[in-house]
Amino acid sequence: MSRQPSPVDAYPATIVVAIACVTLAVVTRMFGPPEEFEELLLQHGLLSPALVADGDWWRLLAAAFLHGGAVHLVFNLMMLWSLGPALEQSLGSVRFTALYVASAVFGNVAVCLLYDPRQPVLGASGAIFGLMGAAVALNMRSGRHALAFLDFEGPRRLLGTIVANLVIGFLLPFVSNTAHVGGLLAGFAVTWLWLRPGRGPSPGLRRWRLAVGALALALLGWSGYPVTRADWLADAVARAADPGRALQLTEAFAAAVGDGPRDRPRPRGR
Amino acid sequence: MPPFFASAARQLPLALVWAAALWPVLLWLVHARDPVAAVRLAQGAAAAWAAAWPWALGGALATAALFPPAPAFVRRALHRARQALLLDQQALLLRLDDLRQFETAARQLEVGRMLRQARKHEQAIPHLGRAVELDETMAGGWHQLGLALFALHQWPAAARCCERAEALDPGHAFGDALLVLGRCLFMAKDGRALATLEEHARRHGGSPRSWLWLAEARARAGDPPGAVAALRQAAQKPTVALSPEDGWFRALARVRLWGKGGRA
Prior knowledge:
The complex is a heterodimer.
Chain A: H1 7-10, H2 12-27, H3 34-44, H4 49-53, H5 59-62, H6 70-91, H7 93-114, E1 121-122, H8 125-142, H9 153-171, H10 177-195, H11 205-224, H12 230-239, H13 243-257, E2 268-269
Parallel strand pairs in A: 1-2
Chain B: H1 3-33, H2 35-66, H3 69-85, H4 89-101, H5 105-117, H6 121-134, H7 139-151, H8 155-168, H9 176-187, H10 193-204, H11 208-220, H12 224-235, H13 244-259
Helix pairs in contact in B: 1-2, 3-13, 4-5, 5-6, 5-7, 6-7, 7-8, 7-9, 8-9, 9-10, 10-11, 11-12, 12-13
């Protein structure tokens, strides 16, 4: 009689991600005084585009394991638990980990590209949207044709869940839908192009992999070196050793700031 | 659509991804020379992007209003995209697997036909070529090969294939081989084009596509009244729902007829 593998054997990466999220909630003292919680979040990887541009690249991944409150954490863990095991068993633990990391990072890259430099963001839902995008890609790859999965109830519900979550994200001002969309696209693209390429002849696959890979590298680089953004320029002025270069950067900063600095933005969860 | 534009349109999505990937690199390079210029460039691009949407929408509406085939063109483009998306990958893989087990002309033809229907003409040609190599008497193979070559604007080669199909099985595919042969001859500026298209119209009747092609052949042969008569036939109000492909040809015929001061 065959034995069912234990969860640790069947989907270890999902369990590790869940444990990491809970551990960081404890480490950052989620239920402690708010000031201390915010300070610990900042220490442990809270993301803001300005901090990433300042050299803290690790925040692109670390922010995906932090949460802003118990409800935030519980909802993300529920979604992780409903999607992660099936996906990990389908893809394998190594590829699942690659998918999770890519979705988390590129969800946060989207934030760095589009948000106010000082906007703080945290949460795992960019990565979880990446898992949903991967599930859509897997469904599209596994049918008789790309839209055959629409004949089945489960995949249709998955699409409904994605749409409902995006609508909720647009309606609630404290939810970062940019990270959701970034993670969703990254999860879909990684699965479609790398993790589960088509089984039939597809001579364009290599060209698409190259182009999308180049785009990913460029966007990642732009998160760290956004040379036309005011916060990066201000920092570069301070660091410039050459007075001529400092003057050049000051002029560029003045051009970029335009109407002056804005109010401090409120934190957003994902 | 001329091959250059068709090829450019196919490469457009990939080109856009490359353009997006190279944009930060361009800004970094400009920044290294002149930081202010980089800021101005980024701000100008952002402003142009923000302003482009209303213009694009207005342009699309104006095109639809001024160029009546636009809805027919969109319908045909959507139909083609849907066909490409709905290619039965599983069936194709099974056919390819069958081919690896045992090769026959019919199996090669089936794979080629499926690829051609998915508009992967370049991939279809080796299979179709092999099918007619294995069985030279296969009219369907010659016809499909002719259609694939026709789609790639290889007019003389496509004409030879369709001529072979028509010789093997007169009236093959309800006259489609003869029709495509006539069009290939027309595109290759062969004098037999008009006679072939007239014969097709006589033997098989017509569709918006065949009437439009006949009108073009008559116009080139110096028969404007005959061309207008054919355009009228092509632009006739259909009694049954037209396919997106035929709808496109009817829309083109209507526009050309208006250009000549006539109506359907």
